[in-house]
Predict the structure.
Amino acid sequence: MTAQLAKPATQPNFDPIARPYHWLEHLTLGPILQRCRTHHLPALTHAKNALILGDGDGRFLARLLAQNPYMQADAVDTSAAMLHLLRQNCADASPNTQTRLRTHQTSALTFTPPHPPYDLVVTHFFLDCLTQPDLEALITRITPHLAPNALWLISDFRIPTSNPMRLPAKLLIRTLYLAFRILTGLRTNKLPDHATPITRAGLTRIAQHHSLAGLLTTELWQAPQHHP
Ligand SMILES: C[S@@+](CC[C@H](N)C(=O)[O-])C[C@H]1O[C@@H](n2cnc3c(N)ncnc32)[C@H](O)[C@@H]1O
């Protein structure tokens, strides 16, 4: 069962690209993004209650649920079409997702997590859809719902600080934002900085892996043992 809310006018609409999303990704970057999403999967075997924000068609969540057969998950996405595919992909990968997976068609920016505390939060290629103020508000909203030592898995594009890939990275990211603006109406046009606000919220980066010549990062952040 999916709860639904009206879309604010400025909210992007990923419904039209939900079905071709997988294929568009494969045609442009092959298996690289899925490798990035799943890089830290072996470190997530203890998750019991996960919050997954903007997972799109659910290819990552399907793997996570299959790996952790007792884990419950709340998946939040504004796109009904993406959530439909997410439920299908998860059901194909695990037998009992009707009782373990709760989907919410709403904005992560206004969503109140219904089943805290979470020991895992996942945001793959989602924070880069947000402006800096929205990303900071999201982190402030979510961190009080984390269990002690909870993990937050973040994958995103990045611009390498100093190597020959810096200019190509800027061009690629500008092109991707333009494509998403045309296809979904996404207004964000600049990568936000998640490291500063998440560090300020008390989390520590415990693992980081770069790929695609430094254009992709996947990071594990850990909440403190005790909330500050
Ligand atoms: C760029 S796609 C990333 C999908 C997937 N996580 C991946 O790794 O490819 C962004 C996803 O976030 C969703 N989304 C965008 N803004 C959102 C918001 N404010 N709240 C919840 N979901 C949102 C979109 O519908 C889409 O499924």
